[in-house]
Amino acid sequence: MNIKPNIGILNAMIRITFGLTILAWSTSKLVKHPWRDSYLFAALCGAMKVAEGIVRYCPLTALCERCQDMIQEHNQTTDSMDGMEGLTNMDGDSVVPYNPS
Q1: Measured in whole angstroms, how far is the alpha carbon of residue 29 from the centre of its chain?
Q2: Confidence (pTM)
Q3: Most Cβ neighbours (<10 Å): which of 8, 18, 68, 82?
């Protein structure tokens, strides 16, 4: 698996800034209430955002791009098969090619 940066510089800086903000807030709350798991979860999410900003790779963005590519490929294959002989329409009628003679 080849990991290439899929987010821009500005997006990375925003992720680092918000990630450090969330991380600082959650650790300060975690010091006062160490038994709360929600602050630990927020700290992990903030650290993940900082890491995404540093390496400039977001797995969720990569997944969305991959799904969009798969949808476009599927649409292209179904569009290219519409002109073939013997296919049926949604109504169940067979498709007859146009013959001008």
Answers
A1: 31
A2: 0.69
A3: 18
